[in-house]
Design goal:
alpha+beta, about 30% strand
């Protein structure tokens, strides 16, 4: 039976993925680059104890359901919080894992400024973000570890994972709640600071 996706707009959510790992898919899908990551959009078809089933929204599917990229993005940002409420999980080493209640496709919580500010209330106004996977990111208080150690940790996680599509980023990020800004402070190949500037939407 053909699915009428126009009737499932309340099931659209966003998922943060790695630009390089999803390069081929992104060529035919609406997305917004954020550092070396990309915001993508999916339909949630099933969510349960056995996991989730999703359908990627391609350019053709976006046109089929009659949405512009801006409308799709705004809808997904609102729906994601309802479908996958953000969640904090405290780690033994003092950091905090940021994900969602289902602990699946949860790395996008770092895009919610008020949620990042909530993290700041727990571990300080400025903190590092280690993009552990597409499912979660780790917030680490400033001064807890050297940048080199955190970057090495991230590289080990990425390089030892079986599926590259589970990797999120090669960048170490830093959030400042007073400035309400997120910066890239280090990556595998270079060491400079840059401010996230998402591509403009039509």
């Amino acid at each position: 039976m053909k699915i009428d996706f126009k009737e499932k707009k309340d099931c659209i959510f966003m998922m943060l993925v790695n630009l390089e790992a999803y390069a081929e898919i992104l060529m035919v899908s609406p997305h917004i680059p954020v550092f070396d990551m990309a915001i993508t959009y999916r339909f949630l078809m099933h969510k349960g104890d056995d996991g989730i089933d999703t359908v990627l929204i391609t350019d053709s599917l976006m046109n089929e359901i009659g949405l512009t990229h801006r409308e799709l993005h705004d809808l997904a940002m609102d729906n994601t919080r309802r479908l996958f409420p953000p969640r904090l999980l405290e780690a033994e080493d003092g950091g905090i894992y940021c994900t969602n209640e289902h602990q699946s496709c949860g790395a996008g919580v770092l895009l919610y400024q008020d949620f990042m500010d909530e993290v700041a209330e727990k571990i300080g106004d400025e903190f590092y973000i280690i993009p552990v996977s597409v499912h979660d990111v780790m917030a680490v208080p400033s001064g807890e570890f050297h940048e080199e150690a955190m970057l090495h940790m991230l590289a080990d996680i990425n390089e030892n994972r079986m599926d590259d599509r589970e990797n999120l980023s090669k960048c170490l990020l830093r959030y400042n709640s007073k400035e309400q800004s997120m910066r890239r402070v280090a990556s595998y190949s270079f060491r400079n600071e840059a401010t996230a500037t998402p591509t403009a939407l039509n």
